[in-house]
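Lay summary. Proteins are chains of building blocks that fold into shapes, and those shapes determine what they do. In this project we predict the shape from the chain. Here is one chain we studied, written as its sequence of building blocks.
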Amino acid sequence: MTVRRNDAQRVADVLRSVSRLEEVLEGGYSEFAGSWLVQSAVTRELEVIGEAAGEVSSPTRKGHPEIEWEKMRDFSSFAKHEYWRMDPRRLWAAVEEVPSLKRKIGLVIPP
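And here is the predicted shape, written in a compact code that computers can read:
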């Protein structure tokens, strides 16, 4: 049986993954680029962010057009289904958007 999660839970999932990304990336780009383990952790958290964002309801998404909901979902799908095309530069580019996402998603209050 699948348990349906509400928007507040999905937003909390995004914030938790953002926090985990911040922790994993404390070592900066050189540590990130030199470690498949760090890259794998980053990929996983970006996937979680995309899945959670993709499940947020339409009213919440429409109420917060400043958040790139579809872009997050698309990145998650790309990372899972076209994993062989994922490279550290693409991952790092996504990670560089995390501070902006943190500011924006922290303001989301589901209807």
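What the prediction tells us: The mean pLDDT is 91.
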